[in-house]
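Below is a filled-in request sheet from our internal design queue. Each sheet records the structural input a requester submitted and the sequence that came back. We keep these sheets so that new team members can see what a complete request looks like end to end.

REQUESTER: design group, bay 2
PRIORITY: normal
MODE: inverse folding
CHAIN LENGTH: 181
BACKBONE (tokenized):
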């Protein structure tokens, strides 16, 4: 039953991005982050029948699925710098996920990090609470990309290269230990 709940949540929550671009994105991130924890507590349900990597592969689809909703919102941004930057980084991540699924080479996820999502969140926050913020120069864009991109590249490197398949164990044991008592 939990597997059905997780799939429905991952499929339906991204629609909230159209109504609430920032809130829907945060809900989608929470759904993405919590699915593995839910499965570790309840079991993988229907996914157990198809092998151990079934949900891992489906998870990548769900990630791109909700990022696509964010991309559609980003395509409507008035600021050309923001719109083009979002388009580039969504395309990079999409290509990276497709190449990773074909080749299973983990370095691809480091080379094609999900900077799109961090940039999307940055820009939606700027639009909502910092209406006077201007993104008009490449130097300002570079600074923003460094701020949102460097932590994401480090995270991708640690998750997909250094601590392969151990990241969730760290998060579980150090942040959500109380769920697993």
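RETURNED SEQUENCE:
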């Amino acid at each position: 039953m939990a597997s059905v709940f997780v799939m429905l949540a991952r499929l339906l929550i991204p629609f909230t991005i159209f109504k609430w671009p920032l809130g829907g994105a945060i809900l989608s991130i929470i759904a993405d982050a919590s699915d593995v924890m839910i499965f570790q507590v309840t079991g993988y349900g229907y996914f157990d029948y198809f092998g151990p990597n079934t949900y891992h592969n489906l998870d990548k689809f769900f990630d791109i699925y909700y990022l696509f909703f964010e991309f559609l919102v980003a395509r409507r941004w008035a600021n050309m710098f923001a719109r083009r930057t979002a388009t580039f980084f969504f395309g990079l991540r999409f290509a990276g996920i497709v190449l990773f699924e074909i080749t299973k080479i983990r370095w691809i996820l480091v080379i094609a990090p999900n900077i799109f999502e961090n940039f999307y969140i940055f820009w939606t926050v700027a639009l909502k609470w910092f209406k006077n913020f201007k993104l008009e120069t490449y130097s300002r864009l570079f600074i923003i990309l460094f701020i949102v991109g460097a932590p994401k590249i480090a995270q991708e490197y640690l998750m997909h290269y250094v601590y392969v398949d151990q990241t969730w164990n760290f998060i579980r044991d150090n942040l959500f230990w109380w769920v697993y008592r």
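SHEET NOTES:
- The chain has a mean pLDDT of 87.
- The chain has one domain: 2-180.
FILED BY: M.R.
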